[in-house]
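To close the chapter, one final illustration. This time we ask the reader to focus less on the individual chains and more on the assembly as a whole: which components sit near each other, and how the overall shape emerges from the parts.
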Amino acid sequence: MKKIIVGSLALGAALFLSGAAFAADGAAIYKSKCAACHGADGQGTAMAPAFKGSEYMKTAKDAEISEVITKGREGAAKKYKQFALGMPKQTLAEDEVKAVTDHLRTLAAK
Ligand code: HEC
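The assembled structure is written out below.
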């Protein structure tokens, strides 16, 4: 009996730890996939708009933001004339899109 309890505790701990290790890290995804265009702190660059203090971020719902991330915004869908190129669609898992969207909210609020 004792063995079973100890065993299941260990399994529980292992599952908990692996869950934590694999959870999508919004800040890391942002750094590797978005920062080059949107700026390390979401301040924007000559390539792409800022999130910090952005009107868009104040009004856009999470679902709209996720859609821009997964579908991109290029060609006729482009909104800003000052950026020569559009927003390329990103290949990310659903939990990664959510994590990076949450991170954009953090950047926008700073
Ligand atoms: C190659 C440069 C580039 C990369 C990389 C990039 N973006 Fe963009 N992004 C843009 C441009 C350009 C726009 C504006 C397009 C337009 O004119 O509507 C944009 C727009 C957006 C918008 C809408 C903002 C607004 O004010 O309407 C969101 C949200 C966004 N990007 C999120 C991301 C996220 C998250 C990533 C990383 C996973 C990312 N982008 C990576 C160039 C980029």
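The mean pLDDT is 89. The radius of gyration is 19 Å. With these observations in hand, you are ready for the problems at the end of the chapter.
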